[in-house]
Design goal:
Layout: E1 2-7, E2 10-15, H1 18-21, E3 34-37, E4 40-46, E5 51-57, E6 72-75, E7 80-85, E8 88-93, E9 97-100
Antiparallel strand pairs: 1-2, 3-4, 4-5, 6-9, 7-8
């Protein structure tokens, strides 16, 4: 299974061997993080048709504009983040959710 992320003008491909690595339970503490851009670390868990990403952002980290072919949803666990989705900008704080349609 491959997930391709476009960050600005760069592409990052995360390639997973689904059969060998799919797990029924997630171990957040021991999952290795990958740095996908400066100050942005991601830990991923997946099933056959879904991916869960836990993303840690350093203070003032800038996530370049990017697109995904699939829907995304998330919750701000701590801190706050300013996001622009479909041209709408909003400051999200702890406990708030976001939904991103596929292709946005």
């Amino acid at each position: 299974m491959k997930f391709v992320y476009r960050l600005g003008t760069s592409y990052i491909t995360l390639d997973y061997k689904l059969e060998a690595q799919m797990q029924y339970f997630c171990d957040l503490e021991n999952r290795e993080a990958k740095e996908i851009a400066q100050g942005i670390h991601i830990r991923t868990f997946w099933g056959k048709e879904m991916l869960l990403a836990l993303i840690d952002l350093a203070a003032n980290a800038l996530v370049p504009e990017h697109h995904h072919p699939h829907e995304q949803t998330g919750t701000v666990i701590s801190g706050e983040i300013e996001m622009t989705i479909g041209g709408v900008k909003r400051l999200l704080k702890q406990g708030e959710n976001y939904n991103i349609p596929g292709g946005t």
